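Action item from last week, closing it out:
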Amino acid sequence: MNVTKSFFGNTPAGDVDLYTLTNRNEMSVQISSLGAALVSIKVPDKDGKAEDVLLGYDTALEYYERDGFLGAVVGPVANRIAGAEFELEGKVYHLQANDGPNNLHSHFELGYHRRIWSVKESGGSLLFSLTDEEQTGFPGKKTVTVEYTLTDQNELKIHYHLSSDENTPVNLTNHSYFNLDGHDSGSVLDHRLTLNASRYTEVREGAIPTGMLPVAEGTVMDFTKGRVIGDDIEADFEQLKLTIGYDHNWVIDGWDGSLRHFATLVGKKSGRIMEAYTTLPGVQFYAGNYLDGRTGKNGAKYFKRQGLCLETQYFPDSVHHDNFPSCIFGPGRDYDSETVFKFI
């Protein structure tokens, strides 16, 4: 495994470095010290042509200034918390109301996506780390690491770990936007997605979970047998209308904390296949419904549904739903998870 380092640019948060991992198949992954963000994933197609399958920007400053969390590690709590507050051990914690009355992705200015992470190389892997002393409104002094490993089997492994001196919600994820036909190739609506998840998290207005976990079978939310994303994304189905398309948490079947295959994504034009694995109970499949035509890498324009996210996670708003798997960690219970994206 080859690892190189280069300067990525200046930001108000500090200088940013860019690290490149390359395997023997000439697959490469670039990761920024800002937000521990995935900047590019170059992988061959069925004809051996390597292309970048990750939406992103050309400069560190763009990652700092633009919204969308492209490629970044989101934390300490990804996704939504209703009312931008929660109660833990008799104390109410107030968070940034940055998505209407609700909280999304912890804090837009102080979240992990905007932090400069320390980086160490270890045996061909990259270990990103930071310390969080309640900057985002969540309790506890937290030590966070994210390790990226690229294998010669074209697997990108992401290992997350967090320890805290107080009990606190934790829900780390990576917010990469994938387009298996190439980041500048247009819509992902012809991609075929299979999810090993027979239930999903029902939402109300604001994409806040109701607490119900409906069965997907027989509806446009059923991806268990594979579904072309664009076939039903505009269907007359209340859940899709509430979120302007697919933007829900799916409940991974058989979750027991072990590493499980939960998704297969196929790019129609390129023939690239991505299998995804995780130790976590849920995945947010987001179809890029709010991409706004922003300028990305090499001048590419990213319009609505030209990239999709598979954000492995605990369920959104878990702090308000006792029937969801608990996302509370602290002394005696460290957060530890792994997600793997394998390209075929």
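Closing note: The mean pLDDT is 97.
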